[in-house]
Amino acid sequence: MSQNRVSQGMTAKLPSPAALAPVQVPTPKWWPLAAGVVVLALLLPLALTVAPSLLGLPRYEVAGGQIVARSLAASTVIPAATPVERATLPRLSKRIGSNMPGYMVGRFTSPAGELAVFGNGSREGLLFATQPPTFITPADPDALLNAWSKGNVMTFRPAGVPAEQNIWPLLLFLPLAGVVASLLLTKPRLTYEIHDDTLTVRTRASTTTFPRQNTQASLTTDPLGMRLFGTGMPGYHTGSFATRSGNVQAAATSARPVQALLLEHGGKRYYLTPSDPAAVAAWFGQG
């Protein structure tokens, strides 16, 4: 690290607003795309929650003497004359698939072995002797069996579930996705301001003051290293970071500035990136 202690005898001169302004760092062209991918990944569970209902899944299509059970990602054909029985299953264990309210599909295991399930979570339904056995939960089992036996063309669905059972994913994921989108897609505000004999540093989550009389200032060319806790994104680095000379509390716009300002106050070291760190350090040096 290149570190120069500011002379205590230097005449105090108030830094200009331009000198105090945080170093401007252009946003990389790839950042909006990366942020969008993160937001979409958070929205994926929500999409998987509402998509089955919007697409009318699971459903059972009866045609040509066979039944096709469909889910969002799979389907199975139940041939004509396949042995079937009404069944009440014990608790099932999911191997792969979904076990959401109103949408229980995939491969499940039971005391009787593995099952292909296309249902709404009800334990009562129709069990067909396919390989593996297929369990479905139509709202009207009699009507489905009658249409199947007669070779009619009809489509059936499970009974719906109360809306309150499906609202929890919305309550969880929509606010979370909104917060993350706000954090990633809007540029956070970071300011350095001097009022009287105090430098005030404001980030999105905190405000820290540095009295000129009780703060030691120095300059460094060390970049920020590994983020230990906090936020690290283009143009905004706050929280605890490692540097070659030890850990710092960052409130910086650049992780690799040409020169940064180190402030020691209250037993902690702070890493700032004003446009003219030497001018700000000189102001502290008069203290």
From TrEMBL:
The keyword Transmembrane helix applies. This is Bacterial Pleckstrin homology domain-containing protein. The chain crosses the membrane at residues 30-55. Keywords: Membrane, Transmembrane, Transmembrane helix. Residues 191-280 form the Bacterial Pleckstrin homology domain. It comes from Deinococcus wulumuqiensis.
